[in-house]
Q: What sequence folds into this?
C-alpha cells in the first residue's frame, strides 16, 4: 500500500445555477493576460450541449486520454517515437476556432468619434489581431440552449439515449438541460503529463496538483491534445502551455480556490482523499462500466488504522490525516457513493467529482396551465420508481459520469430522491411515514445517513464545505534553503522575469 | 586584414563562441524564453504544408552535410558507382527544393496571415531571411556546380577541419565561387544569430521522452530532505 494524499473538489450539479461566477473569478485572477484571453481554466457548459472547446469529448477527433491495449494503457495521441516525429506539426491540436477568437469592443470609438448624424458604436475587435471581426462563437455560446438543433443535438453523450427520448429532448415543452462547470481534473493518471516530450508537466506529490513548469515547456503542445478534457491551453503570445493550478497559492495559505470560493450556489466542496498509488495502473485498466467502482476501490478509508500507519510511513502528517477524516470529498465519493468522475472512460482517473443533477419536476401543460404530471400525494414516490422516465435520461448521465453504467446513476439518483422524500416528510409534514422509510431502504440509506447527506448538501458552513489541510508552507520555503521568517506572509513568487515572446 | 580572414577565420570563431556562451547562459538563467514558439493554434493549414516539409527536409540535409564532413572516405566509396552518385545527388537536390518550398510557404504564411503577423518579431524575420539565403544558395550550388558530394570532401572539408582543429586556413575558401562562399558565410551568421532567436529550440529536441517513465511526480519533501 503506497498511501498518498490528494486535494479534491466536488461539484454538486443539482445546486448549480449556471451563473458563470466561477469562470469570471478565475478569469480575473489568472487568465486576464495577453495570449490567455481565449483560455477559461474554469468554464461552465450547458448540457446537453457541445461544450468548450466544441465537442471536446470527441476523442476520435482530439485524441485525448488513454486507450486499452494488450500491453496495458497507451496514450491515444501517440507512441513515444511518433510523439517525437510529430513535433513539427501536431495533427490533434485544436484550432483557435474550436475555442473562439477572443474579442473585445472598441469602446473608445464611443468617445472619440467625430460629430455626425449617427450614434457612434463600439465595434467588436479580435484581441489577437486588434482588427474588427464578426463574432461567430464564444466560450459559452450555447448557454441555456438545451434542446437546440445545432448544439444540444450534437452532444456526444446522447449516443446511448434511445431515439424516441432524443426527439423528446428537442421538444419545446420537454427540453431539459443542466450545467456542467469544469476545471482541470488534476488526474491520478494524467495523459498531459505522459504526453509532454519535455517533461515539463508534473504532479505535485504532496497534494496531487498538476502543474506546467513553464521554464521547461518548449511549446510542443502535446499536452493540449492529449488532455481528454481540453484543460491545458497554449498561450499563443508567450509560447508556453498553461492550465488550472487549482489556485495553489490560495490553498497553501488556507483559502479555497477562487472558483470554489466565489460560487454563489455553494455547489463546490473541497477536501483531502487518501489513495493507494500502487493500484492506479490496475484501476484504470478495467472495463468501462467497472471504472467507477475500481476508482472508488483505491480511495482509502482515513479511519482505518492500517491506512493511517501507512500514510504516516509515507510522510503524510497528522494534520493531513485529520483533514482527510473530515473531508466532504471522502463522504460524498466513498461513504455515500454520490459523487462520480467525469467521463471516466478516458482513464486518466480524475480527482474532481460530480454529484449528478436531478431532473426537473415532471409537468404537463393543460388548458394553458402548467400542471404536475403526477398525483400530488404520490409524486415523490412515483419519480423515485420511474427513474427510466426521468426527463434528464439516465443513459445520458451514465455517459457523462459512469462510463455508461446506468445502474450507478440510478443508485445515486435514488439516494438523492430518498433523502428528499425523507426530509420533506420530516421537516414539512412533521412525520416520517412508511413511504419515506421504504424509499430510504430501497436507496440503501439509514436515517442518520439521510440526515447527514441533507445537512452537507443543504446547510453546510464554509468550513464544512472547504476542509483544507495544513500545507506548512514554511517547510517548503526551508526546502529551498531560504529562511521561512523572511518570507512570512508571502504567497507565490511572482515573475522572476517579465514574460516576453522568445526574448 | 583581408575580408577573407575576417569572414572566414575570425567571424566563425566569434559566432561559435557567442552561440555556445549565450545558449548556455539562456538555457540556465533565462529558460522561460526558450520555446519553439509554435503558432499552430493561430493558423493550421499553411503551417502543415510549410513546417513538415521544411523541417524534415532541413534535418536530413544537415545530417548529410555532417556525414560528408565526418566520413569522407565512406562517401567516396558510395560515389564510386555512378548510379549511386546520381541517386545521392538527385535525392539531395530534391530534399533541398522540398524544404525550400516549405520555407517559402512559411514565409508566405508570416506575410499573409494577420494572426501570425501579430506574433512575428523582428528576429523571426531575420531568421527567415537568413534561412532563405541559406537554402537558395545551397540549391543553386547543387545545380550550378554539379556533384557536390564528390568535390565537397576535397574542396570544402579541409577548410572546415582547419577550423575545427584550431589551425584555420581561410585561404582555402578564397578561390571558391562566390555562391559557395555566401552559403558558408551565411551558415556562420545563422550560428551567430542562433542563441538570440527561436532557433535555440533545435537543441531542446526532447529525445529523453523515448525512455522516461510516463508519469512525473515531484515531492517537496524530497527537496526538503536534500536541503537537510
A:
Amino acid at each position: 500500500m503506497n498511501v498518498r494524499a490528494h486535494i479534491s473538489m466536488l461539484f454538486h450539479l443539482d445546486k448549480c445555477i449556471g451563473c458563470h461566477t466561477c469562470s469570471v473569478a478565475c478569469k480575473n485572477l489568472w487568465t486576464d493576460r495577453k495570449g490567455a484571453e481565449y483560455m477559461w481554466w474554469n468554464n461552465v457548459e450547458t448540457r446537453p450541449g457541445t461544450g468548450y472547446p466544441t465537442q471536446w469529448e470527441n476523442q476520435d477527433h482530439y485524441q485525448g486520454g488513454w486507450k486499452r491495449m494488450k500491453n496495458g494503457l497507451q496514450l491515444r495521441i501517440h507512441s513515444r517515437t511518433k510523439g517525437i516525429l510529430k513535433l513539427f506539426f501536431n495533427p490533434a491540436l485544436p484550432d483557435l476556432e474550436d475555442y473562439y477568437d477572443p474579442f473585445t469592443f472598441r469602446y473608445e470609438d464611443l468617445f472619440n468619434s467625430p460629430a455626425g448624424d449617427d450614434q457612434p458604436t463600439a465595434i467588436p475587435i479580435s484581441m489577437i489581431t486588434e482588427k474588427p471581426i464578426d463574432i461567430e462563437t464564444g466560450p459559452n455560446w450555447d448557454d441555456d440552449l438545451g434542446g437546440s438543433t445545432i448544439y444540444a443535438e450534437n452532444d456526444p453523450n446522447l449516443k446511448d439515449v434511445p431515439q424516441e427520448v432524443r426527439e423528446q429532448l428537442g421538444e419545446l415543452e420537454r427540453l431539459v438541460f443542466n450545467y456542467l462547470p469544469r476545471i482541470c481534473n488534476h488526474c491520478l493518471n494524467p495523459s498531459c503529463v505522459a504526453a509532454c516530450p519535455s517533461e515539463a508537466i508534473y504532479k505535485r506529490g504532496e497534494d496531487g496538483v498538476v502543474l506546467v513548469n513553464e521554464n521547461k515547456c518548449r511549446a510542443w503542445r502535446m499536452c493540449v491534445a492529449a488532455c481528454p478534457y481540453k484543460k491545458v491551453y497554449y498561450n499563443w503570445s508567450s509560447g508556453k502551455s498553461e492550465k488550472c493550478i487549482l489556485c495553489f497559492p490560495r490553498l497553501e495559505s488556507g483559502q479555497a480556490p477562487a472558483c470554489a470560493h466565489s460560487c454563489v450556489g455553494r455547489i463546490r466542496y473541497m477536501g483531502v482523499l487518501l489513495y493507494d498509488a500502487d493500484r492506479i495502473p490496475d484501476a484504470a485498466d478495467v472495463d468501462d462500466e467497472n471504472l467507477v467502482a475500481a476508482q472508488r476501490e483505491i480511495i482509502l478509508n482515513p479511519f482505518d488504522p492500517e491506512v493511517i500507519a501507512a500514510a504516516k510511513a509515507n510522510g503524510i502528517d497528522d494534520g493531513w490525516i485529520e483533514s482527510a477524516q473530515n473531508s466532504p470529498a471522502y463522504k460524498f465519493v466513498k461513504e455515500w457513493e454520490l459523487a462520480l468522475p467525469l467521463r471516466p472512460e478516458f482513464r486518466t482517473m480524475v480527482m474532481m467529482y460530480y454529484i449528478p443533477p436531478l431532473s426537473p419536476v415532471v409537468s404537463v401543460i393543460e388548458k394553458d396551465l402548467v400542471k404536475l404530471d403526477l398525483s400530488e400525494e404520490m409524486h415523490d414516490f412515483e419519480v423515485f420508481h420511474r427513474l427510466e422516465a426521468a426527463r434528464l435520461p439516465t443513459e445520458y448521465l451514465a455517459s457523462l459520469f459512469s462510463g455508461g453504467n446506468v445502474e450507478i446513476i440510478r443508485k445515486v439518483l435514488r439516494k438523492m430522491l430518498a433523502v428528499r422524500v425523507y426530509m420533506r416528510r420530516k421537516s414539512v409534514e412533521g412525520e416520517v411515514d412508511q413511504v419515506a422509510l421504504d424509499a430510504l431502504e430501497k436507496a440503501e440509506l439509514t436515517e442518520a445517513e439521510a440526515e447527514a447527506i441533507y445537512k452537507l448538501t443543504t446547510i453546510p458552513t464554509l468550513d464544512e464545505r472547504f476542509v483544507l489541510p495544513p500545507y506548512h508552507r514554511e517547510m517548503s520555503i526551508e526546502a529551498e534553503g531560504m529562511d521561512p521568517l523572511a518570507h512570512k506572509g508571502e504567497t507565490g513568487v511572482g515573475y522572476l522575469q517579465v514574460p516576453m515572446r522568445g526574448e | 586584414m583581408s575580408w577573407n580572414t575576417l569572414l572566414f577565420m575570425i567571424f566563425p570563431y566569434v559566432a561559435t563562441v557567442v552561440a555556445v556562451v549565450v545558449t548556455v547562459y539562456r538555457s540556465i538563467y533565462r529558460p522561460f524564453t526558450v520555446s519553439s514558439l509554435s503558432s499552430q493554434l493561430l493558423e493550421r493549414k499553411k503551417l502543415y504544408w510549410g513546417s513538415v516539409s521544411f523541417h524534415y527536409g532541413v534535418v536530413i540535409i544537415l545530417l548529410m552535410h555532417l556525414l560528408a564532413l565526418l566520413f569522407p572516405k565512406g562517401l567516396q566509396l558510395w560515389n564510386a558507382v555512378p548510379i549511386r552518385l546520381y541517386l545521392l545527388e538527385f535525392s539531395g537536390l530534391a530534399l533541398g527544393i522540398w524544404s525550400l518550398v516549405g520555407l517559402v510557404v512559411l514565409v508566405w504564411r508570416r506575410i499573409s496571415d494577420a494572426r501570425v503577423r501579430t506574433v512575428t518579431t523582428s528576429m523571426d524575420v531575420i531568421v527567415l531571411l537568413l534561412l532563405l539565403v541559406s537554402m537558395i544558395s545551397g540549391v543553386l550550388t547543387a545545380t550550378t556546380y554539379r556533384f557536390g558530394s564528390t568535390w565537397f570532401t576535397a574542396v570544402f572539408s579541409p577548410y572546415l577541419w582547419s577550423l575545427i582543429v584550431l589551425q584555420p586556413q581561410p585561404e582555402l575558401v578564397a578561390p571558391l565561387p562566390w555562391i559557395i562562399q555566401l552559403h558558408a558565410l551565411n551558415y556562420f551568421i545563422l550560428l551567430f544569430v542562433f542563441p538570440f532567436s527561436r532557433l535555440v529550440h533545435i537543441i531542446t529536441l526532447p529525445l529523453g521522452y523515448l525512455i522516461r517513465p510516463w508519469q512525473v511526480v515531484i515531492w517537496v519533501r524530497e527537496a526538503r530532505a536534500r536541503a537537510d
